[in-house]
Amino acid sequence: MSSDTVISVRGLRNSFGDQVIHENLDLDVRRGEILGVVGGSGTGKSVLMRSIIGLQIPDEGEIDVLGENMIGRSEDEAKNIRRRWGVLFQNGALFSTLTVAENVEVPIREYFPFIKPPLLDEIAGYKIAMSGLPANAGPKYPSELSGGMRKRAGLARALALDPELLFLDEPTAGLDPIGAAAFDELIVGLKHKLELTVFLITHDLDTLWAICDRVAVLADQKVIAVGTIEELLSLDHPWIQEYFNGPRGRAAVASRKED
Ligand SMILES: Nc1ncnc2c1ncn2[C@@H]1O[C@H](COP(=O)(O)OP(=O)(O)OP(=O)(O)O)[C@@H](O)[C@H]1O
């Protein structure tokens, strides 16, 4: 694995009963890039992310993240590797009985139990601000936030341990176009400031064009192509052509030209 590769997946196989999701799937994610992951519904984008972060044990394959082999590690070893990344799950996955600040503090308390208030609150406040939330969001409960604010709260928690790598599962799903564009900008800004590598599952064509350095396409149980959108457009695959050159794909291009 080259030092520029932060995630390397080789020969991945995942199945649930008779249903094979991935077969012989390979993927590399390069340091410092935002890699978009696209594919039809049910092609296994989330299962791929869950395999990489160790929440899904594959039938076969090798997965290296940040130079560490992820398969067959003890719980203690896995925990040490896990602290080097942050994850924003599709629904935000916030604890509903905790405030935003308390949610952000959960991973900090887990890994650094000696950090006590007021330093703990100060760190949480800093992460909340970084995620573009107003300071008064800290004491609020998730149910008191808009969808966009909940995503930002989830992002603040994902950033809690100063990750090197960020996993985002459909972060702009359910946001209006202005909210989605603002979230995209936030991700790019954080990527530059924090020198992050980002693994981003999305259906959002605007997001793909606006912020992704490369895009990986999942189909037929594997990654069928990886490249810039321009590179993908030159491929003669029906799903890729329909996705990027269909009406929605063309609308995304047209709206970029208006900007
Ligand atoms: N824990 C599980 N048990 C059984 N089947 C599962 C499980 N998790 C996922 N699947 C199945 O695996 C397939 C891939 O699911 P996954 O959520 O990864 O798709 P996806 O590409 O992320 O889809 P979407 O774009 O709709 O979110 C689906 O058919 C799903 O039903």
From TrEMBL:
MF-aspect GO terms: ATP binding; ATP hydrolysis activity
SMART domains on file: AAA
InterPro entries: AAA+_ATPase, ABC_transporter-like_ATP-bd, ABC_transporter-like_CS, P-loop_NTPase
Domain ABC transporter: from-to ranges: 7-245
Xref: SUPFAM superfamilies: P-loop containing nucleoside triphosphate hydrolases (SSF52540)
Keyword ATP-binding part of the UniProt annotation: yes
Pfam families, alphabetized: ABC_tran
Record carries keyword ATP-binding: yes
Keywords on record: ATP-binding, Nucleotide-binding, Transport
Protein name: ABC transporter ATP-binding protein
